[in-house]
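Lab notebook, bench 4. Still working through the backlog of constructs that have no structural model yet. Next entry is a single chain of 658 residues. Request: give me the structure tokens for it.
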Amino acid sequence: MLLRTMSILTLVFSFIFVSCSPKHSEIVLSKFGDREIKMEEFEKVYAKNAGSLEQAKKDSLSKLKSFLDLYTNFQMKLRDSEVRGYQNDPNLINELNDYKKKVGTTYILEKQLVEPALKKYYERRKLEFRVSYIMIKPDSNAGAAKKLADDILARIKKGENYETLCAKYSQDKFTKDKGGDIYYVTAGLLPPVFEDAIYSTPVGSVYPYVLDTRWGYYILKVTDKKDRIPQIRASHIMVAFTNAAGVADTLAAKQKIDSIAAMIKAGKSFKELAAKYSADPGSKENGGDLGFFERRRMIPEFDEAAFKLNVGEVSPVIKTQFGFHIIKVTDKKPYPDFESDKENLKTIYKQAKYNADYENFLDSLKKKFNYTVNKDAVIKVTTKNDSAKVVPGLLESDFVKSIKGLTLFTLNNKNYSADSVLSIVVNSSEYNNRLVDTLLIKQVLKKTSDDLALSEEAMNYDKENPEFAALMEDYKNGIYIFKLQDEEVWGKIAVDSTKLMSYYEKTKSNYVMPDRVSFEEITVAGDSLKTVVNDLLKSGENFDSVAVKYSEKKGENGKAFAWALTDVSTNDLSKAAAKIDKIGDFVSIPYDGGYSVVKLTAKEKTRLKTFEEAKAEVSGAYQEVEGKRLENEYLKQLNTIYKPVFNYENLEKAYKAE
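Model written out:
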């Protein structure tokens, strides 16, 4: 009975213990004052510091412990910054807001504009479409051109043949007799209006609306769709239509290419046959290799045949405007992952669509912030102006004084006056000496309102985007810590000659001047000149005189190049000079593709540096030591105030959530 009771009690206590155990994320690792650093926060910060979650999981307990100490100190400093009221410091607030505006505008454009567009391009470019179009050019009677296009589309919808109507009506002379075919395309190759229509049209169908563009009116048809192969590598053998005498002989060319095809089928080397028979001088020396290429880089007949082949396959004989060809595909590139293709996608997007998207995005922001222009004010500004120009004295002119305070536009419930807008104009070189007229005001309103709308969005973006909020929090913490370090450490380090001399006397053994040599150098290019120079010097000719005549590297007044006292380990020249026993003796060594003749002029053995020689090093070392001392004193103060407690044993559970 007693055993049964004990078992029940054990189960009860086990249940109570498990029930009272905190969740993994809530495990407390350290605390100071009323602040607790819990597992979730620590794991996130440590993984970021380690470079990745995978690396964080591999790190030792000692590394985790060291980081917990540092992070707790960091958080105590941030708490101290709050107590000191940094959050209300106007200079810090302005610095943070300036950073938020500058970084925020870039961040917003990247996250809301660029990244979504790149991902869309990435997915779209996995496919390619074969497309045809009927084009009706705009004319002086635009209504007639549009009506004709609408009529053609209506006839197609009723069942008339697309290709027949294309041949009759299309005004693109290059495609009308080919059913309007423009071959295979993928995202980024055509203007967005075409691209969006293509990607929304099923194969074999005609886009249900006439495309109204600045180039004319288009009726699109999608004739094929397939998975896109980014690039293939191919080799070819070409036989030109003309013979060696330059006379066209298509029959002979066909017989020759057919005989080559037969040899390939019989097992002959494609590479060797290309080198022997191909008429393409650009590739025959490489066995016909054309390297990697994308769709549309070759003429359509060649392109279509090549992209149908698998790796290792050889095409039948094909005919192009250049002659007859046999193609062999030797490699294919797979579709790249997003990250490796990102820069290429950015280039495509910037060229094809970014500017339009940017303008649309700015328009949406201005609508969001209720942007309105005071048209009456614009009229007043331009009518009051009596040929005023954008010059340095414009803001002090009677013209600007007469419009001071006049609201020119409103954005996010903030009024912007005409004089404040003109101050922007004066401070921008792009408007120099321009007349303050309607065109100028229109341009300035556009640019100013665009910039302000982006700034307004940036100032509130941390409330919408957690990643940006974290970025701003990191920057805020950084400037707070910087100010704390300045007040408690760097600003308290007093450096004067007396303190530096005292520190030097205690640590002078740390400042050592190495073995040094000074020498002169004559440089020559070849063996023969080296021999001439050596013979002259051995015969007693003056070193500088020989240098003036023969040295490629000149010193002052064309004399031998002089090296001041130099560490013997600096280069091969100093090493060679150090091996010379007697001042004035010389040695010749190979150097820098030629020869150098080195004459020793002085030697100095290793010694302690004087205070003046070591002063810069002493100052740096002294400030480092003082900085560490003041940092430790500051941390002692924080420890006294906040009395941190560490639960190091809980670190064993880090990154081991069940």
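Notes after review: DSSP finds 23 helices and 20 strands in the chain. Confidence is low (pLDDT under 50) at residues 1-19. Flag for follow-up if needed.
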